[in-house]
């Protein structure tokens, strides 16, 4: 689960559904959360009072990091980098609410 500031549920639905092209899971979810499908997992987005940015993040493995970065760049999403890890390439991005995400590709 990630959080977005109170009053931004419509923006969250637009970002995750339209910009990131995730399939929304309809239904009456606890605490009016939005649920999205990513492959065979779910991303739950819930409104909470705003707070400082955090480095906490989920990490998602992708088949092609270059393709993922190109997708994000075309959507106007800023990409950031961090320390290198042997055997994988990775990058980070934040959604409009400050949530941090890692994308990684294991090197063959």
Question: Would you give an account of this structure?
Answer:
This is VOC domain-containing protein. Residues 1-106 form the VOC domain. It holds the Pfam family Glyoxalase. By secondary structure, the protein is α/β, with parallel strands linked by helices. It has helices at 9-19, 65-74, and strands at residues 2-5, 23-25, 34-38, 41-48, 59-61, 88-94, 100-106. It folds into two domains: 1-51, 2,3-Dihydroxybiphenyl 1,2-Dioxygenase, domain 1, CATH 3.10.180.10; 52-108, 2,3-Dihydroxybiphenyl 1,2-Dioxygenase, domain 1 (Roll), CATH 3.10.180. The strands form two sheets. It has a four-stranded mixed β-sheet with strand order 1-4-3-2, with helices on one face. Strands 5-7-6 form a three-stranded mixed β-sheet, covered by helices on one side. The longest helix has 11 residues, at 9-19. It is globular. 10% of the residues are buried. The mean pLDDT is 92.
Helix and strand topology:
Elements: E1 2-5, H1 9-19, E2 23-25, E3 34-38, E4 41-48, E5 59-61, H2 65-74, E6 88-94, E7 100-106
Parallel strand pairs: 1-4, 5-7
Antiparallel strand pairs: 2-3, 3-4, 6-7
């Amino acid at each position: 689960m990630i959080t977005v500031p109170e009053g931004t549920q419509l923006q969250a639905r637009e970002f995750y559904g339209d910009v990131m092209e995730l399939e929304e899971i309809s239904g009456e979810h606890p605490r009016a959360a939005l649920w999205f499908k990513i492959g065979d997992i779910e991303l739950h987005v819930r409104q909470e009072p705003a707070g400082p940015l955090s480095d906490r993040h989920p990490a998602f493995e992708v088949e092609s990091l270059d393709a993922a970065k190109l997708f994000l760049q075309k959507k106007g999403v800023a990409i950031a980098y961090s320390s290198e890890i042997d055997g994988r390439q990775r990058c980070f991005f934040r959604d409009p609410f400050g949530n941090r995400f890692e994308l990684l590709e294991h090197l063959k």
